[in-house]
Amino acid sequence: MADRFEAGQRVRTSRSDPPHHTRLPRYARGAAGTVVDVQGDYPLPDDRSRGLACEPEPVYTVRFAAVDLFGTGDHAVTVDVWHRHLQSLADDEEAGRER
Amino acid sequence: MSGDHHSPNAVIAARVRDVEALLEQRGLLDSGELDAALEAFLARAYPGNGARIVARAWLDADFRARLLTEANPALADLDLSMGGGLQEQRLRVVENTEDTHNVIVCTLCSCYPIALLGPSPTWYKSEAYRSRVVREPRAVLAEFGLDLDPSVSITVWDSSAESRYLVLPRRPAGTERFSEADLAGLVTRNGLIGVAAL
C-alpha cells in the first residue's frame, strides 16, 4: 500500500464509477479535500460486497469545502474515505501535467 | 410500505427468516436467540444515553476533553459503550460552538449511533434529508426550525464508513445552577443529530 496519509494532508478522491457497490459517495468523487482524522484500518466494503479477500486499510475523515463538491455553498462536508479511494493532491497535479 | 408483500423490505425479511430457520435447523443458533440478542441490544439504546453524555460533558471539562479526543473509552465513565453486546463501533463526538454548527447524516444508507441512541428517526433515513443536507444544510436546518446566523459555519458529517457521529450541543443560557439530571432533561434527539439547538 502507498504511504498512509496524515491529518492536514491535501488529497483528491478517485473519479472511478465502478459497476459494483462502493463506499465513495458519488457527490464526493474527483474532489480535493483535507484529511482531518485517521480512524484506523477496516476492510473495504467495495471488495467485501463482492466476496473478494481484502486486507484492512486506513479510513480517513476528509473535509471538503461545499463549493468544491457542488460549485456552491459556504459550508463544509466531511466524508469518511478508504485509503484506496484517495491520492495525494500533489501526485494528482503532477499526473495532470504529464498528460 | 409495510404490509406490501412486493416491497423490497418484505423480500429481505423473508430471506432473513429463511436464513435464521436454516441456522436453527443446523444447531448453530438456538430458537429465539437472535430476538433475545436484539431485544437486549435495543433495551439499552435510547436517546437518554446521549443526553447523559452531553450533560456530563457540560459539567466536567476533563470528561469533555476526553470525549472529543477519543470518545469510546470516555463512554465507560457513564457505563455506556458503542458495543451494546454487538461489535463495538468507533464514535466521534463533534462540538457545537458560538461560531460552528455540526450536523450528522449518512448519505449512502442510514448509519447512526444505534448502540447509544436506539433506532434513528424516520426522516433521518429519507432520501430528501440524505441528499439535501449535504448540499444545502442551512435551508434544511431552517425547515427544522433552526435558523442559524449567517456568520455560523456549518459542517455536515457524512457517516460513510465505520465511525458513528454524535453532536455535542451548546449548553443553554441560564442553566448554571442545573443538576446533571436536569441538564440531561434538556437534551433532545434532534439536538444530538444537529438539526436543533437546545
Write up what this structure looks like:
The complex is a heterodimer of chains A (99) and B (198). With 99 residues, chain A is of the alpha+beta class. Chain A has one domain (10-98): SH3 type barrels, CATH 2.30.30.50. Helix content of chain A is 19%, strand content 34%. Chain A has a five-stranded antiparallel β-sheet. Chain A is globular. The model of chain A has no long low-confidence stretch (mean pLDDT 91). Chain B has 198 residues and is α/β, with parallel strands linked by helices. Chain B folds into two domains: 8-42, no CATH class; 46-193, Nitrile hydratase alpha /Thiocyanate hydrolase gamma (Nitrile Hydratase, Chain A, Alpha-Beta Complex), CATH 3.90.330. Chain B is 43% helix and 12% strand. Chain B contains ten helices and four strands; from the N terminus they run αααααββαααββαα. In chain B, the strands form two sheets. Chain B has a two-stranded parallel ribbon with strand order 1-4. In chain B, strands 2-3 form a two-stranded parallel ribbon. In chain B, helix 3 packs across helix 4 and helix 7 packs across helix 8 (137-143). The longest helix of chain B has 18 residues, at 8-25. Chain B starts with 7 loop residues before the first helix and ends in a 5-residue tail after the last helix. At the A-B interface, strand 2, strand 3, helix 2 and strand 4 of A face strand 3 of B.
Give a short synopsis of this structure.
By secondary structure, chain A is an alpha+beta fold.
Supply the key terms.
heterodimer; A: 99 residues; alpha+beta; SH3 type barrels; 5-stranded antiparallel sheet; 3 helices; 34% strand; globular; B: 198 residues; alpha/beta; Nitrile Hydratase, Chain A; 2 domains; two-stranded parallel ribbon; two-stranded parallel sheet; disordered N terminus
